[in-house]
Design a protein that fits this description.
Helix content is 67%, strand content 10%. It is of the alpha/beta class and 368 residues long. It has two domains: 47-163, abc type-2 transporter like fold (3-Layer(aba) Sandwich), CATH 3.40.1710; 171-367, no CATH class. The protein has a five-stranded mixed beta sheet, sandwiched between helices. Helix 6 (125-146) links the parallel strand 4 and strand 5 (155-163). The protein starts with a helix and ends with a helix.
Length: 368
């Protein structure tokens, strides 16, 4: 028994002295429960919507104010014509548009029934369904408040229109997300072992005495993986179109170019991990832990980012997959052009440049 307790004590001291093990055992569960507790939720809150009030009477104003007062919606724009609806959706600023037609209040007063139109961005069908259900519930609640003292009940009918995905196919949302997840993990993991493998095999010395500069060495390491990743992009797009029936509505050339840009970003992350890691196992573990969960949580295809607290929303901005997911949805599903995604493209370009510069600088330090 004494020997057993000695071994337990030895293992306890080993864990206590190993900071990495201590972090995984104690702080990792704390971080995960806090992160998942805020991020993993089926409830959609603070969704940005627009209101087109063509009636502009007391009844329509009261209804739009009730929708805005709900914790599920945030009215960010009041529109003035139908033309603005499509443009606002194309800019990605809203998820839902509420249209109150002309004579809304008069129809309620004289014929006891009126109509309202709900237009949702169905490129994310689950969120679109949830938002229209929330809006319908608010409208029904408003209708009940009007019918309290009425002999003839008022009836407000909501007409729902789904943009970009009328059939509400789940693949329209998950294909862009899976593209971001697959390219990020495959590219990063492939390159994360590229340089550290040379260290383990003892061939790094041969590379160091070569006349190539660090930039060219890193470039030489990256090109083969870039070619393989390009083949992966082609395979994913072919499967999406011919197997999953997800059409490429926008420019195929633009979609491929953006995918290659995201691939280069992912390869840059893998190179940075490879330069800092000491073993291939450590590189693989780091790439999985640091990329899989953030991509899954913060890309936006599983859980809407706007549901999360502000600090987590800020953190999501440093996840490259979030910007690529927005780009793929805009080009592939909505059929938008470069003018609609230039900001996201610049973010990916900036991330790639910073990652490459940092990787090269770290590689130079190791050469010295």
């Amino acid at each position: 028994m004494r020997q057993f307790l000695i071994f337990v004590k030895k293992e306890w001291f080993h864990i206590w002295r190993d900071r990495r093990t201590l972090f995984i055992l104690i702080w990792m569960p704390v971080a995960q429960i806090v992160l998942y507790g805020f991020a993993l939720t089926n409830e959609v809150k603070n969704s940005r919507i627009a209101v087109l009030d063509l009636s502009n009477d007391p009844a329509s104003t009261a209804l739009s104010q009730r929708i805005d007062a709900s914790r599920y919606f945030e009215v960010i724009r009041y529109l003035h014509s139908y033309r603005e609806i499509e443009e606002t959706f194309r800019q990605g600023k809203i998820r839902l548009a509420v249209v109150l037609p002309k004579g809304f209040g008069d129809d309620l007063l004289h014929s006891n029934h009126a109509q309202i139109q709900l237009i949702a961005d169905a490129s994310d069908p689950n969120t679109a369904n949830t938002l229209t259900n929330y809006a319908t519930a608010i409208i029904n609640d408003y209708q009940k408040s009007l019918n309290q003292d009425q002999e003839l009940p008022y009836q407000i009918r909501a007409q729902v229109r789904m943009l970009y995905n009328p059939e509400l196919k789940g693949a329209y949302n998950f294909v862009p997300g899976v593209m971001a997840l697959v390219l990020m993990l495959v590219c990063a993991m492939m390159t994360s072992i590229a340089i550290v493998r040379e260290k383990e095999m003892g061939t790094m010395e041969v590379i160091l005495v070569s006349p190539l500069r660090p930039f060219k060495i890193i470039l030489a390491k990256t090109i083969p993986y870039l070619i393989i990743s390009t083949l992966n992009i082609a395979t994913i797009l072919l499967l999406s179109v011919f197997v999953l029936d997800v059409p490429i509505t926008g420019s195929l050339v633009l979609l491929i170019a953006e995918s290659i840009l995201f691939t280069i970003t992912s390869l840059s992350i893998g190179l940075l991990i490879s330069i800092g890691a000491k073993t291939q196992q450590a590189a693989m573990f780091t790439s999985m832990m640091s990329l899989f969960l953030p991509t899954l949580l913060f890309a936006g295809f599983l859980f809407p980012v706007e549901n999360m607290p502000l600090p987590l929303q800020i953190i999501s901005n440093v996840v490259p997959a979030k910007w690529y997911y927005i780009i793929v949805k805009a080009v592939m599903i909505k059929g938008l052009g470069i003018m609609s995604i230039w900001k996201e493209t610049l973010v990916l370009v900036g991330m790639t440049v910073v990652l490459l510069i940092f990787s090269i600088s770290r590689f130079k330090i190791r050469l010295g």
